[in-house]
Amino acid sequence: MSIIAPSILSANFAALADDIKDVERAGADWIHIDVMDGHFVPNLTFGAPVVQAIRPVTKLPFDVHLMIERPEQLIPSFIKAGADRITVHAEACTHLHRVVHMIKEAGLPAGVAFNPATPIAAVENLLDDLDLILIMTVNPGFGGQQFIPQSLPKLRQLRTMLAERGMSHIHIQVDGGINAQTSVLVREAGADVLVAGNAVFLEQDRAAAIASLR
Ligand code: DX5
Ligand code: ZN
After folding, report:
1. Architecture in CATH of 3-213
2. pLDDT tens digits for range 15-60
3. Residue 67 pairs with which residues in a beta bridge?
4. Among the atoms of ligand 1, which is closest to the Cα of residue 139?
């Protein structure tokens, strides 16, 4: 059964708590929190204070996706604010092993994300330390973009890499352009955690929207 993680980037920021409660009632498994710094990606969203503010709203795990330069500088503040798992971009970390260990030593599961053009080879020597690998299925920065089909062979390649090393317990997460149609493709290719922003929050019936992704 897939894990569905609605991205609050597509939620109503003027009523964030209500929208989070609504998707929890609708069957969401995780809450995906897109942190953007305007440097690593051409958009700026929110920081740890917002995570802290919404923490009491739900018991669902906060899946924090750091699309920021030098994430090591802010990881402690997101942990303090209530993150349950943190994913950093391989492209944003000069010392990726050190950043992943920073997350793990704080007791949180660690994830590494790859932009569409980045090969997954960078993670081959880190598999023992990872709980999740995120394959971006759009270029990061915005919700509502078109799914990039070249993500599918990359997903299959990752699934094979993990299976060959006995690491199939590591979550394969996809993020960007995931909807009722593309969810079928990514699940067949190996994804078990599906992030969806517009496909959930722009729908009136969030329960039906989440069910359509599983
Ligand atoms: C993009 C974010 C995604 C995005 C997904 O940079 O990482 O999580 O919010 O939004 P949709 O599902 O609408 O493409
Ligand atoms: Zn994301």
Report:
1. Alpha-Beta Barrel (3.20)
2. 999 999 999 999 999 999 999 999 999 999 999 999 999 999 999 9
3. 36
4. 6
Q: How far apart are CA 152 and CA 135, in angstroms?
A: 10
Q: d(Cα 195, Cα 183) in Å, to the nearest integer?
A: 10
Q: In this structure, which residue's CA is closest to atom 9 in ligand 1?
A: 143
Q: Is 177 in the pocket of ligand 1 (CB under 6 A)?
A: yes
Structural domain spans, the chain:
3-213
CA dihedral 125, 194, 88, 170 (to 10 degrees): -30
Note the residue count of the chain: 214
- d(CA 154, CA 137) in angstroms, rounded, equals 10
Torsion sign, CA atoms 153, 165, 125, 182:
positive
